[in-house]
Amino acid sequence: MLKNPLFLILALIAIIIVAIITFFLGGQRGDVPENEPAGDNEHMMEETGEMMAGDEMMDSGVAPQTYTVRITAGGFEPGTLTVRRGDTVIFRNNTSSPVWPASAVHPVHMAYPGSGIEKCGTTEAGNIFDACGGLEQSDTFSFQFGENGTWRYHNHLNPSMTGTIVVE
């Protein structure tokens, strides 16, 4: 069949790269299977009850809520959080090591619309899904989600630590 093992190895590497890219970018359009349960976020999230400036109502007529994702040695808790468009998520570092929550895909952070690591340190940094630096123990980063979809994110300092925010 194939007499050149190098060709076979290169083909396998290409397939693996395509699979990884598909995994990380596949969810950015908000495609969630209808038969997949939304999850029981009520027991996994901490609702702080804080309202955003002006207590604006989004399209649903419901005042935006604020949720907390705890960052622990085991990862992001909850791993998947479902919120409404306009809600704010606070990422709180509960570990003794620095963490850097940011939009997928590592290292460019561009899965969430308008985000990108190149905007860190600029006037646009406050508008992107990126902490733009490590959070020390008990530090927080908050982000208001204005785009519907399924948004994967990661810890830039430990890219295997990932989570998902579903915005409905």
List keywords for this structure.
alpha+beta, five-stranded mixed sheet, about 170 residues, Immunoglobulin-like
Principal-axis shape equals: globular
> What would the average pLDDT be, to the nearest integer?
81
First-last Cα distance: 50 Å
**Helix content percent band:** 10-25%
Strand content: 25-35%
What's the count of strands?
9
What series of H and E elements makes up the topology? HHEEEEEEEEE
Unreliably modeled segments: 27-56
* CATH level 3 topology: Immunoglobulin-like
Specify the structural class: alpha+beta
Radius of gyration: 18 Å
Number of helices: 2
Number of domains: 1
Full CATH superfamily name: Cupredoxins -  blue copper proteins
Level-2 CATH architecture: Sandwich
Largest sheet data = 5 strands, mixed
Protein name: EfeO-type cupredoxin-like domain-containing protein
Transmembrane segments: 6-25
Keywords: Membrane, Transmembrane, Transmembrane helix
InterPro entries: Cupredoxin, ET_Amicyanin
